[in-house]
Amino acid sequence: MEPDLLTYSPILQRPPLRWPNGARVALWVVPNVEHYEYLPKFVRTRDPWPRSPAPDVLGYSQRDYGNRVGLWRLFGLTDELGIPCTVSLSMAVIQHYPAILEAMEKRGWEFLSHGIYNTRYHWNFSPEEELAAMQESREIHRRLTGREQAGWFSPAITNTLNTFDLAARAGFTYTADLYHDDQPFPLNVKAGRLLSVPYSIDLNDVILHRRGEEIEEFARQIRDHFDTVYAEGAEQGRVMCIALHPFWVGQPHRIRAFRRAMEYILGHPGVWVTTGEKIADWFNTNHLGAIDAHLAAREAANG
Hints:
This protein has about 300 residues and is α/β, with parallel strands linked by helices. The protein has helices at about 55-80, 90-95, 100-105, 125-145, 165-170, 205-210, 215-230, 245-250, 255-265, 275-285, 290-300, and strands at about 25-35, 85-90, 110-115, 150, 175, 185, 195, 240-245, 270-275. Strands 1, 2, 3, 8 and 9 form a five-stranded parallel beta sheet that branches. A four-stranded mixed beta sheet has the order 4-5-7-6, sandwiched between helices. Helix 4 packs parallel to helix 5 (about 165-170). It is globular, with a radius of gyration of 19 Å.
């Protein structure tokens, strides 16, 4: 990462961030709807499948459960609770599975690009290769939805030194590739503007899965995290992201505990349940000018 990509600013010294209608917390729920190649097209720095050599039938079929069953169970829960989602989407999903595209479009879910396949890492990509992948993502989205794509999130979190400059160049307005803050923050890209909208590796079901933890611990962490940012949000608005993987949280023995955690959050006033694109748009329209002025003043004071 370029050392000057982010200007340092302690959160409590920034201009107060106020969300729409005085909300304390902007909550975005991010299901990772991914496609993993049975036989990856190419492998560079690391084999995508832990049980090598491919095919890894166990790993592939576990993830395929998410698209066949778990996602549909999650649709039911989010429908009942009225939760709009931002999908961290392998763009190949909406090419291979029209039924998933139709279901997500019916619900008005936002499609945050998570690359083409989650088995095609961007590590060691040349700038030309990485830009081409971003442009292909936007083209797939445009062709199948008729809309322009707002957000970029590198597949399998394999961003490079060039990712943020290239994302701005490709036309993305925000990225979910950074985990450095509880508020959106502008990035110092070489041309244009790019906003970081906080994604979460901590409130992320598959990270807990890798640590051997289970759904009740995940649900507890969601509630504890919310209680903290909700209290802090009275003075400084916060972003809370809950990252999900339907192959994990969509299992029959896990979905109910997740429902209870979401019902707990939704029982509080002052929670703006929204999407990444709407967070970015609201911030850019209503708060970016104040942040730019604040950062310019800090820079001038520091000489």
